[in-house]
Amino acid sequence: MLQHLSTVLWNKEAGPGCYRIGLSCPDHFGTAVPGQFIMLGLAGQLDPVLRRPFSIHNLIIRDGQTVGIELLYRVVGKTTAMLCRKKPSDRVDILGPLGRGFVLPSGLKKIYVAGGGVGAAPLVFLVSHLRRCQVDLSDCRVFLGGKSRGDLLCRDDFSALGVAVHITTDDGSAGDHCLVTHPLETAVERSCPDLLCACGPTAMLSCVAGIAEKHGVPCQVSIETMMACGMGACLGCAVQRRGQPQTYLHACMDGPVFSSQQLKW
Question: What integer is the mean pLDDT of 104-127?
């Protein structure tokens, strides 16, 4: 983990209110694993004071060398409103890679991936990593959900990686008119995967964890929670440990990726 003054490579709209930003980074980011994150500060800005966490959306690799990272973010507050105005050659301050990512067992053959809204961000890195590791993705399936068509992100990215993508929306404006967990559970009932990975709103992750437990499928979830430091100092990202009252884990150090059985839902 190192601090780095990063150069903006690109900053493009990815959907209504959502952007992809490419940032230069030192080569140690080449060891980053899917699910890890960075803490980003706006260089030269006194307000906002605190950095903000962003999942690594993917690595930028040229000639076999990691030269940058890409983030996928939604404009929801002051920091992201300022970030979306950054232009190529502007600078931002990043700290990372941080946290614990997805743990991928050897011999993995069938993986189902579920993302809700901007929760798709770390999952593109996950599937890209599997492909770079020459994992056969023919049995990999991705389930993407959103409130409406405009909330669906990264469908083309997953399709380009050669994986089947199932789309759902709460309002029926695209794909199936249902929650993303409905077709996910149907798929699990038909053929259990070796691993189920998910990122999205807490209610969705709770449902995914329930599906995994019901069918005896190993499940890892990347949780979305506020962080102030990203390094375990402030203890502001506590989540309750399952089966141990008043015992907590911290998303920045113990996660943000957890086995679904570790957490109290």
Answer: 94
Distance of CA 207 to the CA centre of its chain: 17
Are 49 and 12 contacting, i.e. CB atoms less than 8 angstroms apart?
no
For each of the domains in the chain, give its residue range(s) and CATH number, in order of start: 2-98 (2.40.30.10), 111-224 (3.40.50.80), 225-265 (2.10.240.10)
Do 151 and 117 contact (CB within 8 A), yes or no? yes
CA distance 39 to 54: 6
Beta bridge partners of 256: 100
C-alpha 239/C-alpha 260 separation (Å) is 12
Ranges of H-type helices in 84-230: 121-132, 155-160, 181-190, 202-215
Nearest to residue 199, comparing CAs of 108, 122, 131? 122
CB-based contact 93:40 (threshold 8 Å): yes
Q: pLDDT per residue over 150-160, tens digit each?
A: 999 999 999 99
pTM over the 0.85 mark = yes
d(CA 221, CA 263): 10
